Amino acid sequence: MATEEQFLVPQDIYLKSGIHIGTKFRTKYMDAFIYKTRADGLSVLNLQKIDERIRVMSTFMSHYDPGDIMVVSRRENSWKAVKKFGEVTGIRVFAGRYPPGILTNPVLKTYTETKLIMVTDSWPDRNAINDAMRIGIPVIALCDTNNQTNNIDLVVPCNNKGKKSLGLLFYVLAREYLLLTGKIASAEEFKATLEDFTDE
């Protein structure tokens, strides 16, 4: 069991970002990640499991070159974080509407090949998930308490709607990806700041 010292960032930074605050809806798919439901009806995600899954995601992604990964996010709250993540890691990002068919239709000018896809929300980003399924590549998805997780290979529980939560997640993921792929030797070498990823 990870103690606070073993978290990827100090616990209070996680808590301040609201990364663990879910929605008033919960699906059976996400039950395993939910810590409790508050008196106001909001479900709260287990911080330990969030941290564990960010580690698993970072390790999984580190087995792929940046050019072989694509991050897709229709949700506007994530655009600053996703764009900064792409800039820092060299991973391709689609912030905004994902053009269907770019992974499956070689005739399209926008056609691209990729080996791994990550989405920030399985519902608005379902076109990208469908394309990934057609070509048989793994899908990582950030999932809130209200998400369904079918057709997803790796579920990463988190508040996938808040700007601060998404900013923190992509900040940590960028740092870990660069560390695990040997692009930086220590966390201290990571020059980007949390503010670079977060909209106030």
Oligomer: single chain
List the domain count as a whole number.
1
Instruction: Give Rg in angstroms.
Output: 16 Å
Rough outline: globular
Question: Do you know the CATH topology?
Answer: Rossmann fold
Let me know the largest β-sheet. Answer: 5 strands, parallel
Overview of the molecule:
This protein has 6 helices and 7 strands; from the N terminus they run H-E-E-H-E-H-E-E-H-E-E-H-H. It is of the alpha/beta class and 200 residues long. It has helices at residues 11-17, 47-62, 79-89, 126-135, 163-180, 194-197; strands at 34-37, 43-45, 69-73, 92-95, 116-119, 139-143, 154-157. Helix 2 (47-62) crosses helix 5 (163-180). It is 33% helix and 14% strand. The strands form 2 sheets. Strands 4-3-5-6-7 form a 5-stranded parallel beta sheet, with helices on both faces. Strands 1-2 form a two-stranded antiparallel ribbon. The longest helix is centred in the C-terminal third of the chain and has 18 residues, at 163-180. It has one domain (9-197): 3-Layer(aba) Sandwich (Rossmann fold). The radius of gyration is 16 Å and the shape is globular. Strand 5 (116-119), helix 4 (126-135) and strand 6 form a beta-alpha-beta unit.
